Amino acid sequence: MGRNFILVLIVLAVLMVITDALNVRPFFVVKETERALLLRFGEVVRADIPPGIHFKIPIANNVRKFDARILTLDSAPERYFTIGKKPLDVDSFAKWRVVDVEGYYTASGGGDEAIARGILQNRINEGLRNEIGKRDMHEVISGQRDELMQVLTESLDAIVQDDLGVEIIDIRVKKIELPAEVSSTVYQRMNSEREIEAKQYRATGNEQSLVIRADADRQVVVIEANAYRDSETIRGDGDATSARIYADAFGQDPEFYEFYRSINAYKEVFQGKNDMLIIDPSSEFFKYLKSNQG
Questions:
Q1: What is the Cα 148 distance to its own chain's centre?
Q2: Do 129 and 80 meet the contact criterion of CB atoms below 8 Å apart?
Q3: Taking a C-beta distance cutoff of 8 angstroms, is the pair 33, 26 a contact?
Q4: What percentage of the chain exceeds 70 in pLDDT?
Q5: 222: left (phi over 0), alpha (psi -120 to 50) or beta
Q6: Taking every annotated instance into account, which residue ranges of this chain make up the domain Band (predicted)?
Q7: pTM confidence score
Q8: Which of 19, 20, 23, 116 is nearest to 67 (CA)?
Q9: At what angle do helices 145-163 and 113-132 cross, to 10 degrees?
Q10: Which end of the chain is less crowded, N or C, counting CB atoms within 10 A of the terminal residue's CB?
Q11: Integer distance in angstroms from the first to the last C-alpha of the chain?
């Protein structure tokens, strides 16, 4: 009995060594980040095998494992045209993952990821071409970019799940540029438009400046005229008041008033050193010079 048990153990050990060397182990392990297919002579017998340890028949069964994590498809920039036939170079990327292992295996020629990426890229390019072709340049660049990406993601996801067995989680645009041959023309047109706007602003500014200057000149004239009018009014009132005061004062003493006027006349006549005046000495003009009371 003991010898038979030892013999069985030896046989099992030899079989394990042989199967390990030939990679025909009767069990396999699927990681948390993987999904697997069990094939029997090339035909799928079990799909979407979950993580864990599973049994298989050596030689007859074959296992194919696929990455179940979210993958990135980073594509090269492609040229698309807007509804106005304006070219745009769009650099985009997509996030995707395998959700239907059997469908993915069949559509990608036996699980070839390069083939799957090529199919997915063609679908995305076609979707971008259709969506950008419905919009003008402004909508694509800024106005409706988020909406465009959401519509594209939802529409393509339904298609590729059926055709390729994968889920599109998100599609994003990294960069949108005008082609080099178009950029210079656009920039020149933008510069011309800015120059025209600048000239219009300057012309408007000059016109407003003339209006403001004319209004200021008018106000100066009005202010000066009002000031002159007021000054003349004040001067006239002052002269009238002065005359009234003189009249009141001298009316009380007419003799003194006549004397005051004569003194002022003497000052006016004799203020020059070389002036000569020929007047009769008996003239009334010298009345106060001859007066003993003076």
A1: 19
A2: yes
A3: no
A4: 76
A5: alpha
A6: 25-190
A7: 0.55
A8: 116
A9: 140
A10: N
A11: 179
Confirm if 120 and 94 have CB atoms less than 8 A apart. yes
Enter the tokens of residue 14: 């030899």
At 176, which helix (H) or strand (E)? Answer: strand 166-177
Look up residue 13 and give its two tokens.
């050990």
- Give start and end residues of each alpha helix (H) in the chain: 2-21, 101-107, 113-132, 137-138, 145-163, 180-251, 254-269, 287-290
Q: Is 143 helix (H, G, I), strand (E, B) or coil?
A: helix
β-strands 87-98, 71-74: how paired? antiparallel
Task: Write the DSSP string, 8-63.
Answer: HHHHHHHHHHHHHHTT--SEEEE-TTEEEEEEETTEEEEEEEPSEEEE--TTTEEE
pLDDT in tens, 56-83: 877 788 888 889 999 999 988 999 999 9
The pair of three-digit structure tokens given for residue 107, joined into one six-digit string: 């559509």
| DSSP summary character for residue 285 | G
Per-residue pLDDT tens digits for 126-168? 999 998 898 888 888 876 778 888 888 998 998 999 889 999 9
* Cross-strand bridge partners of residue 43: 40
Q: Which two tokens stand for residue 262?
A: 């004569």
